[in-house]
Hints:
Chain A has strands spanning 3-7, 10-14, 19-26, 32-38, 44-50, 56-58, 64-68, 73-78, 87-94, 101-102, 106-111. Chain A has no helices and eleven strands.
Amino acid sequence: AQSVTQLGSHVSVSEGALVLLRCNYSSSVPPYLFWYVQYPNQGLQLLLKYTSAATLVKGINGFEAEFKKSETSFHLTKPSAHMSDAAEYFCAVSSNDYKLSFGAGTTVTVRA
Amino acid sequence: GAGVSQSPRYKVAKRGQDVALRCDPISGHVSLFWYQQALGQGPEFLTYFQNEAQLDKSGLPSDRFFAERPEGSVSTLKIQRTQQEDSAVYLCASSLDPNTEAFFGQGTRLTVV
C-alpha cells in the first residue's frame, strides 16, 4: 500500500520568495511520484512526475522536485513565487502508474 | 472538446435519491478514472476503466456506487440511495493509456441534503 503525507495544510509566501512544499511518502515498491496543482473551480493539472529516470525533476511553471529515497521525500520547490502560484497543491504516489494516492493538499497564498 | 468534460457541475440531491454523474473523456483516450474528493481532502481513487472494461473498482465505497463505460467513451458514475457522507466533488480523468498523463475534469460537486 502507498500513502502520502503533506506537511502543512497552508503555506503563505511573499511574492519573489522561495516556495517549499513538503511531501513524504510510504510505498512497499519503488514508487511513481507526482505533484498536481488545482486552481479554484478547475481540475487537477500535472506539475511534474518522478519515474526513477532522474532524482531531480523539473516541471511546468518553474517548479521542480527532488526524490530522496533515504528520506522518503519528494518536496516541491520554486525559487521565486509569483501571484499566479496561489492554488492548492497535491502530492501523489502510485505503484502501478494509474491508481494515484493523494495527500490532503497544501494551499499556497502569495502576499504582494 | 479540448478537455475532460463533466456534467452536471453541481448537483443537490435529497437523501435517498439516486444520482448519475457523467464524464466525457478526451477523444481517443483509452483509460478513464473516477476519484472522490471530500471537503478539505485529497482525491480518493474510486475506479478505473480501460476502454469499456472496468479493470479496478476497489475504491468504490459501497455497493450503492456503480460505474459504467459501455462503449469505451462516455462514463457514468451512479450513486443509489444517496447519503450525506456521499457529499463530495467527483473527479473524472482520462489518459491516452495507463502510463501517460491523466487529464482531469473540473468535477461534479454533489451535495446531499
